[in-house]
Amino acid sequence: ETGVTQTPRHLVMGMTNKKSLKCEQHLGHNAMYWYKQSAKKPLELMFVYNFKEQTENNSVPSRFSPECPNSSHLFLHLHTLQPEDSALYLCASSQSSDQNIQYFGAGTRLSVL
Amino acid sequence: GQNIDQPTEMTATEGAIVQINCTYQTSGFNGLFWYQQHAGEAPTFLSYNVLDGLEEKGRFSSFLSRSKGYSYLLLKELQMKDSASYLCAYSGAGSYQLTFGKGTKLSVIP
Predict the structure, then answer these.
(1) Using CA atoms, how far apart are residues A13 and A25, in angstroms rounded to an integer?
(2) How far is B31 from chain A (nearest CA, A)?
(3) What's the whole-number mean pLDDT along residues A52-81?
(4) Is the pLDDT score of A98 beyond 70?
(5) Cβ atoms of A54 and A36 closer than 8 Å
(6) Interface of B with A in 26-85 (CB under 8 A)
(7) Which of B41, B98, B102 sits opposite A102 (nearest CB)?
(8) How far apart are CA B54 and CA B48, in angstroms?
(9) What is the C-alpha separation between B93 and B110, in angstroms, rounded?
């Protein structure tokens, strides 16, 4: 148990669906992150939130829309995804965005049909 | 292109020692991290090196040479449960972002 919980663990969706991934951290951290992990590729940083403010968007397509209502919760809203978006989506948190030790959730395995 | 490199796969025997190397290139440097990731699970933090030298934590040790852009993770007294992917990552100076390698899949065999 890392203190970072992601739901759902698995998700299958069609290209026209809208779904959301949820992340919750119980560590009292102020920074939260979304990563994409594809087979045989390194972890790719997607978004960073620090004290609920988005501080990084690594050229992520607009079909991925993050939301951070408070420092403990992070969402990733998905719409009109493509099959190549199928991957493991990982959430992480750290004390702040300049405290680099990040703690990860177990991820959501997403399949886009 | 990828400026952090580690072997794709390694195999080692239970009870043995294995060293997983990582090389990186960056204009600024703020720390080197190792994470362990079992299949289908969260990456878990193992170690963080910011200065040169060896950091020891039980069966796991991590070494850093900043001048050589080189780190290794040393696992001693290997156990079957150590079979996992090991991810190397660095953070650049003035940046909180972690740049990850592709990971090394370690298989421990009896």
Answers:
(1) 25
(2) 8
(3) 90
(4) no
(5) no
(6) 30-31, 33, 35, 40-45, 48
(7) B98
(8) 11
(9) 42
Put simply, the answer to whether B41 touches A106 (Cβ < 8 Å) is yes
| CB distance B110 to B80 below 8 Å | yes
Does the distance separating the beta carbons of A31 and B4 come in below 8 Å?
no
pLDDT digits (tens, 9 = 90+) for B2-16: 589 999 999 999 999
- Chain B contact for A43, CB < 8 A? yes
For residue A103, what pLDDT is reported?
Answer: 93
Residues B28-71 have pLDDT tens digits of: 888 999 999 998 888 999 999 999 999 999 999 999 999 999 99
Nearest to A25 by CA among A71, A65, A66: A71
Residues B87 and B21: their CA atoms lie apart, in Å, by 10
